[in-house]
Amino acid sequence: MTENDHRLVRNLYARYCHALDDCDEIALATCFSPDATVTVIETNLAVDAPPAPAPRVMETRAGIVTAMMQAARARVGYRHWVTNLHLDVVDDDHITGIADFQVVTERAVTESFGRDRDEIVRDPSGEWTFSSRLIDYRYRIIW
Protein backbone atom coordinates (compact mmCIF):
# COMPACT_ATOMS: atom_id res chain seq x y z
CA MET A 1 0.00 0.00 0.00
CA THR A 2 1.39 3.37 -0.97
CA GLU A 3 1.51 6.32 1.39
CA ASN A 4 -1.19 7.92 -0.75
CA ASP A 5 -3.42 4.83 -0.36
CA HIS A 6 -2.85 4.96 3.39
CA ARG A 7 -3.89 8.64 3.42
CA LEU A 8 -6.99 7.90 1.33
CA VAL A 9 -8.08 5.12 3.70
CA ARG A 10 -7.55 7.33 6.77
CA ASN A 11 -9.62 9.98 5.01
CA LEU A 12 -12.35 7.38 4.37
CA TYR A 13 -12.69 6.85 8.13
CA ALA A 14 -12.77 10.62 8.74
CA ARG A 15 -15.29 11.19 5.92
CA TYR A 16 -17.56 8.52 7.43
CA CYS A 17 -17.48 10.23 10.87
CA HIS A 18 -18.02 13.71 9.41
CA ALA A 19 -20.91 12.50 7.24
CA LEU A 20 -22.70 11.06 10.27
CA ASP A 21 -22.00 14.16 12.39
CA ASP A 22 -23.22 16.50 9.64
CA CYS A 23 -26.14 14.27 8.53
CA ASP A 24 -24.64 14.39 5.04
CA GLU A 25 -26.30 11.64 3.06
CA ILE A 26 -24.25 12.24 -0.10
CA ALA A 27 -20.91 12.10 1.72
CA LEU A 28 -21.97 8.97 3.60
CA ALA A 29 -22.88 7.23 0.33
CA THR A 30 -19.32 7.78 -0.95
CA CYS A 31 -18.01 5.70 1.94
CA PHE A 32 -19.63 2.43 0.82
CA SER A 33 -19.38 0.16 -2.18
CA PRO A 34 -22.72 -0.47 -3.96
CA ASP A 35 -23.07 -4.00 -2.53
CA ALA A 36 -21.72 -3.22 0.94
CA THR A 37 -23.00 -4.77 4.15
CA VAL A 38 -22.92 -3.45 7.69
CA THR A 39 -23.55 -5.66 10.71
CA VAL A 40 -24.12 -4.06 14.11
CA ILE A 41 -23.62 -6.14 17.25
CA GLU A 42 -23.50 -5.27 20.94
CA THR A 43 -21.03 -7.04 23.19
CA ASN A 44 -21.81 -4.43 25.82
CA LEU A 45 -19.22 -4.76 28.58
CA ALA A 46 -21.04 -2.62 31.15
CA VAL A 47 -21.74 -4.44 34.41
CA ASP A 48 -25.46 -3.62 34.34
CA ALA A 49 -25.89 -4.08 30.58
CA PRO A 50 -29.18 -5.52 29.37
CA PRO A 51 -29.06 -8.65 27.21
CA ALA A 52 -27.62 -7.94 23.78
CA PRO A 53 -30.14 -7.48 20.97
CA ALA A 54 -29.91 -9.64 17.88
CA PRO A 55 -27.34 -8.49 15.29
CA ARG A 56 -28.70 -5.92 12.87
CA VAL A 57 -27.66 -6.25 9.23
CA MET A 58 -27.90 -3.48 6.65
CA GLU A 59 -27.35 -4.33 2.98
CA THR A 60 -26.49 -2.26 -0.09
CA ARG A 61 -25.24 1.31 -0.12
CA ALA A 62 -28.78 2.70 -0.33
CA GLY A 63 -30.06 0.61 2.58
CA ILE A 64 -27.06 1.46 4.75
CA VAL A 65 -27.31 5.20 4.06
CA THR A 66 -31.06 5.24 4.76
CA ALA A 67 -30.68 3.43 8.09
CA MET A 68 -27.65 5.40 9.23
CA MET A 69 -29.15 8.77 8.28
CA GLN A 70 -32.29 7.95 10.24
CA ALA A 71 -30.15 7.26 13.32
CA ALA A 72 -27.93 10.33 12.75
CA ARG A 73 -30.90 12.68 12.42
CA ALA A 74 -32.18 11.44 15.79
CA ARG A 75 -28.82 12.38 17.33
CA VAL A 76 -28.05 15.82 15.93
CA GLY A 77 -25.04 17.31 17.69
CA TYR A 78 -23.39 13.97 18.41
CA ARG A 79 -19.77 13.49 17.35
CA HIS A 80 -18.01 10.34 16.16
CA TRP A 81 -14.32 9.68 16.70
CA VAL A 82 -12.16 6.89 15.33
CA THR A 83 -8.75 6.02 16.73
CA ASN A 84 -6.21 3.18 16.90
CA LEU A 85 -6.59 2.48 13.19
CA HIS A 86 -4.76 -0.66 12.10
CA LEU A 87 -4.66 -1.62 8.41
CA ASP A 88 -3.54 -4.86 6.77
CA VAL A 89 -3.08 -5.23 3.04
CA VAL A 90 -4.83 -8.21 1.46
CA ASP A 91 -3.89 -7.24 -2.10
CA ASP A 92 -3.55 -4.08 -4.20
CA ASP A 93 -7.31 -3.43 -4.11
CA HIS A 94 -8.31 -4.89 -0.73
CA ILE A 95 -7.43 -3.87 2.83
CA THR A 96 -8.75 -4.94 6.21
CA GLY A 97 -9.09 -2.34 8.94
CA ILE A 98 -9.70 -2.36 12.67
CA ALA A 99 -10.44 0.84 14.57
CA ASP A 100 -11.85 1.87 17.92
CA PHE A 101 -14.70 4.37 17.96
CA GLN A 102 -16.41 6.67 20.40
CA VAL A 103 -19.70 8.54 20.05
CA VAL A 104 -20.16 11.64 22.21
CA THR A 105 -23.42 13.52 22.81
CA GLU A 106 -23.92 17.24 22.31
CA ARG A 107 -23.27 17.56 26.08
CA ALA A 108 -19.86 15.85 25.79
CA VAL A 109 -21.06 12.61 27.40
CA THR A 110 -19.86 9.31 25.96
CA GLU A 111 -22.91 7.64 24.45
CA SER A 112 -21.05 4.60 23.18
CA PHE A 113 -17.73 3.13 22.21
CA GLY A 114 -16.60 0.01 20.48
CA ARG A 115 -14.61 -1.46 17.65
CA ASP A 116 -15.07 -1.52 13.87
CA ARG A 117 -13.78 -4.41 11.75
CA ASP A 118 -13.77 -3.47 8.09
CA GLU A 119 -13.18 -4.81 4.61
CA ILE A 120 -12.07 -1.91 2.40
CA VAL A 121 -11.85 -2.13 -1.39
CA ARG A 122 -10.66 0.14 -4.17
CA ASP A 123 -13.45 0.99 -6.60
CA PRO A 124 -12.88 1.33 -10.37
CA SER A 125 -12.24 5.09 -10.02
CA GLY A 126 -9.44 4.43 -7.50
CA GLU A 127 -11.38 5.49 -4.38
CA TRP A 128 -11.36 3.28 -1.27
CA THR A 129 -14.77 2.29 0.13
CA PHE A 130 -16.11 0.03 2.85
CA SER A 131 -17.40 -3.23 1.40
CA SER A 132 -18.15 -4.73 4.80
CA ARG A 133 -18.29 -3.32 8.32
CA LEU A 134 -18.80 -5.05 11.63
CA ILE A 135 -19.68 -2.38 14.21
CA ASP A 136 -19.30 -3.86 17.68
CA TYR A 137 -20.65 -1.69 20.49
CA ARG A 138 -18.65 -2.54 23.62
CA TYR A 139 -20.50 0.06 25.70
CA ARG A 140 -23.70 1.90 24.98
CA ILE A 141 -25.91 4.06 27.16
CA ILE A 142 -29.57 3.23 26.67
CA TRP A 143 -31.46 6.50 27.16
How would you explain this protein's 3D organization?
- It holds the Pfam family SnoaL_4.
- Residues 5-133 form the SnoaL-like domain.
- InterPro entries: NTF2-like_dom_sf, SnoaL-like.
- This protein has helices spanning 3-21, 25-29, 61-73, and strands spanning 32-42, 56-59, 79-91, 94-104, 110-122, 128-140.
- The protein has 143 residues and is α+β, with helices and mostly antiparallel strands.
- The protein has one domain: Nuclear Transport Factor 2, Chain: A (Roll), CATH 3.10.450.50.
- Strands 2-1-6-5-4-3 form a 6-stranded mixed β-sheet, covered by helices on one side.
- The longest helix has 19 residues, at 3-21.
- The protein is globular and about 45 Å long.
